[in-house]
Amino acid sequence: MLYKSAAMEIVPALPAASILVVRDAPTGLEVLMVRRHVKSSFAAGALVFPGGKVDAADLALAVERLTDDLLPYRIAAIRETWEEAGILLARHTGIDTFLDQAETRRLTTAYRHPATKMATIIEREAIELATDRLVRYAHWITPAAEPRRFDTQFFIAVAPAGQSAVPDGHETLDCFWFTPDAALREADAGRVLIVFPTRLNLLKLARSRTTDEALDRARSEPIITVRPEMIVTEHERIVRIGADCGYELTEMRYQTTRPPS
User: What total of structural domains would you count in the chain?
Assistant: First the structure.
């Protein structure tokens, strides 16, 4: 049966954003993944792409450029990637290249804590977020039955050359560069937890061999809003999507058990 009732109050889906930060490596296309803290309120202990909720400060930064409806999501995705993984998709105003490792480390030391707003960093350091480098990748909305729901825009972007990923130690405990196949093997072996949207977007990314190919695919393929439904049987919970959503897999047993630490 469907996991909801007529009397159930549906929680609004909060706007959220995530980035698949990718790079070319000798082993093939790699993507940045972070391991969430085991005490996180959402996807605790799971291996995910950097990301999080769109907040009021993201909306304020976007207000002057309302020609792009997704700009608040792009800003949030860049901010969250910096906060969670220490990768900053930004550049000095008027310069096309990303900030280098030394500059990013300096900014991280000076500003990487929750009290500092991104707008403050942009103003003080004369930088701009490279929102134009983010290519829309996918759109997922959490099932109505869930107590915490997100309306998530996924993007894909090439990693800044030379920047190193470093977890913040609070929201994220580890940062990894995985080929999509390697990440899925880790999950199948029970060594990491990968939730359904992450698994499917890894499978989608595995269709590409290089960053150029992945970005070209993202630019050319249609974005279909994915609205999974949660099914409860006598013995298990299953999350399911439509066959027309553009993924090879359409259902998966709902995972809540954390892998061994």
Answer: 1
